[in-house]
Design brief:
single chain; 420 residues; mainly alpha; four-stranded mixed sheet; 16 helices; 4 strands; binds zinc ion
Length: 420
Amino acid sequence: MDTASLTLTAVFCILLLVGLAMRMVLASRQIRHVARHRDAVPIAFAQTITPEAHRKAADYTITKTRFGLLELALEAALLLAWTLLGGLEWLNMTLLAALGGGMVQQLALLASFVLIGGLVSLPMGWWSTFRIEERFGFNKMTLGMWVGDLLKGTLVGALIGLPIAALMLWLMGAAGPLWWVWAWGAWMAFNLLLLVLYPTVIAPLFNKFEPLKDEELKSRVNALMQRCGFAASGLFVMDGSKRSAHANAYFTGFGAAKRVVFFDTLLQQLSPPEIDAVLAHELGHYKRRHIVKRIAMMFAVSLLGFALLGWASQQAWFYLGLGVTPSMDAPNDALALLLFMLVIPLFTFFLSPLTALLSRRHEFEADAYAVTQTSGSDLASALLKLYKDNASTLTPDPVYARFYYSHPPASERLARLRAA
Ligand SMILES: [Zn+2]
């Protein structure tokens, strides 16, 4: 192997090891911190959270974090197996021998990569739902429903994924040296299309969405949205309780396809003023332009990514350094895509504290907006109920929270609400 390939192999191994070590240190910090505070409810929550609920949250957090370590090990092993241990090389060669070099072979390579990855992580998904979620009383799924979701998800994934993959591969082969600009444009258009298709076509395949019927709640919510100058094309209740006891509310889509979705579990748990406050928080994300900023960020970051891919896919060391031999007489575009998707997370992991920080800042801004439109104490009590019902820990490790948390820890969030 040449120096460039060896350098890439070395960088890959170092990043993988450093990333793994950091994640393990962070997870064990979190586990120890939560365990240490398991038996005492923090003073600020002593009135609202019972010792049992606090212990349940601690046990749930610890169990999930431990399980995360197992997933981490599996992921790292799989990454090594695909790359340096020759998995991708073998798969590519086998498919080349069977199908020859062309679009069909490349699509088969992408599809079998996804299928094999899915099969390997299947037991983990099963364990997470039927062991962990079940033990803490959150799982409402039967095995049949789980299998049905899996099949439906695979089918929908293939229907959506194969055409976009074919388009990308075609652009890579036919659009000249600047193919990555075209591919980026196509990818962005596809993402915007998904933003419209997801709430209207895809999500209804898995859940029932019914217009909000509760007239009193409806008029409250409509009044709030009018006050905030927000037009949504519908208020929907989703049967989230079909699968899980976890509660949520969200906005999806944009433009005319914008809709507000409440989980039925949320409506059962919160009082009408609390629902208002949660909704006002979500509206705050729109009002403070967080959604637009996020989409703009996605545009910029993926342009950078495609430029990088455009350059890397032309370098022999990019393949050789990651355990794959590029073909001389067949396109290597699918290989380049796969290697790129496998390697990029090793780099972006180190950016997680930054993206988490931005996200937490947005959460604070949305809370601040909610306080101007509804009552801060309603939002505080709604958040407390959600923390309790979702068994989220109130005592995360501060370093772990800085690194990963997309939402501010409960104590910081409620302290700000009380101050407002
Ligand atoms: Zn939020």
